[in-house]
Amino acid sequence: MIVPMKHLSLVLLESERNTVLEGLRSLGAVHLDLKLGTTPGQEAVLTRYRQAQEAMNFLGKPKTVVPAAEVPTDALEQVLKLQNETKLVDEKLLHWTKRMEFWAPWGDFDVVALRTLAEKGLFLNLYQVPGSQEARFAGVEGRIVLRRDKTHVYFAVLSRIPDLLEGATHIPWPEVHLDQKKARIAEMQGLSKGLKAEAERMSAWFGALKAQAAELERLIDWESAKGGVGSFEGLAYLTGYVPVDHSEALLKFAAQHGVAVALSDLTEEHQPPTKLKNSFFPNLMSPVFELLGVTPGYAERDISWPFFFFFSIFFGMILGDAAYGLILTSLGGFLLIRNLMAGGKGKEAWILFTWLGLCTTAWGTVTGTWFATDFSQLPPVLKALVLPLFNPEIVQGGAAAVSNNVTVFCFTLGVLQLGLASLWNFVQMVTVNPLKSLSHFGWLSLTVALYLLVLSMVANINLLADFFPEPLLSLLFVKTATGLALPGWVVPVIGISYGLILLFSFQEGKFWKGLLEGVSNFLPTSLNAISAFADNISYIRLFAVGLAGFYIEVSFAAMAKGFGMDSIGGIAATVAVLVFGHTLNLIMGFLSVIVHGIRLNVLEFSNRLGMEWSGRPYDPFRVKS
């Protein structure tokens, strides 16, 4: 659920500002309205914080750790100085390495001798031209060809005239001769090696620098809070938001500190943060929301429960293989135990990972998918765990019927999720605006009718007897002499549903005005109705992506089988191909979950609900660990 908020206004003496802020930070419940921009104090702390981050990135994770008492007080300055020296040496090393590469086609030159010749009136100029243009300069007096390669010709011209050749690229003399370049490169390499050794020694200070960065982060919050406090004639004031269940604690705090406080109900002008408070399972979606960077608006609905429910199914279907699920479950369980032993911070991510592994195992088990093994070759115990709906040895029609049933299952998930969104909208609106709620009822009936239409177009409806039990099958389809057919009421229901959507979507006040506005929006409403058809069909992606992963497994299994198991080399090649293939398939599966599994929740389902994910997360002013 989205926790209700109150708008907060505090007025206090300017002299008490720091004391009150310290108390608010200890209370840890007030989300402050902060001013845009930064104060001088914030700038200084931010600069220092960025330096600490740069220093840690430069050092990397330590191989050894020293006690904090042994870390010098100016550790950050020492690391930054070392970083600058390393950068300078690396730049010089790169410069001289590039100069060596540039002069490689020319050979070595005695720069002093070149200058001596020039003083005596003999000028040696260097040129580079494309090989196709060499003939233009073949008759140049004093021309000495130094080298040819596939693309260019390198030559020198010894002349008593300092004028340069037209049409040829003139190359200035080198700064130093070859031995000096090599010496400078060797010098920079030696310095670089010493600086790296020093950086490795300083990496033992990483923990102290990390603690310093954490303290600076707390100072940033403190300076930001100070910057968010206004002042006027000896008084200070600030505004923010506080959860309703923390209101009494805030009022008690204000009374203890002599602070004037006003808590008011929210209006349309306010922009409160969103605080989600859920039970265990829907709260597991918080890492996903953080990864996506989305937060429901305060006035929107918390969809954590349906998001969690459908996302779990989508994940299991996309990865699809019970063996993959066991791997993920084992890995997730191991990482969760290690996380709990380390303090349990952020354990929700590993619990979710383990749960999704179990969902994958469950789907693979009920569909009989174990490393893409042919169903006929599965052990009897695994066959017994397969649902009759997905068992080719039980359903009429065999493997074709199983494939059809998975397709129908995908579309059924779609009608359940999209229908839930429309039903939720209808229930929420029916007591507030009964006329407008009819448009949401139209969306609900349209979703069901389009579901049947999609089944008749995409699935083999003559095999639906394996999926729908009686009397549901007779209710949804008509039995004819040639098989099942779409009932005659589907098309009229689509038309009536569209009419409800068109006529009642804009009922906000006067009936006729809303009616006219609905008719005037004929084109966008029609496009939305067409999009609803596409939304229903889009759930087939679950079957398509899962099937693609299945055949990737089959392909790598066939490839590995070709190496044979009759030699050490064959065994090694087989193992390598299988490990690579399944690892690649798992990675692609995770990417598919992000692209497809999350999309169905964040786009199709959320759009039907009318969600814009326009919220900002609740971030109270508090002491951060």
Characteristic key phrases:
21 helices, extended, 9% strand, alpha+beta, four-stranded antiparallel beta sheet, 625 residues, single chain, five-stranded antiparallel beta sheet
Q: Can you tell me about this structure?
A:
The protein has helices at 17-27, 40-59, 75-103, 111-119, 178-202, 206-227, 247-257, 280-283, 286-292, 304-319, 322-341, 347-367, 380-384, 398-430, 434-458, 472-476, 490-504, 511-520, 522-538, 541-561, 568-609, and strands at residues 5-13, 31-32, 123-130, 143-148, 152-159, 169-171, 230-232, 235-243, 260-264, 478-480, 483-485. The chain has 625 residues and is α+β, with helices and mostly antiparallel strands. Among the domains are: 5-71 and 206-264; 110-173, no CATH class; 397-539, no CATH class. The strands form three sheets. Strands 1, 2, 7, 8 and 9 form a five-stranded antiparallel sheet that branches. Helix 20 runs antiparallel to helix 21. It is extended and about 110 Å long. The model has no long low-confidence stretch (mean pLDDT 88).
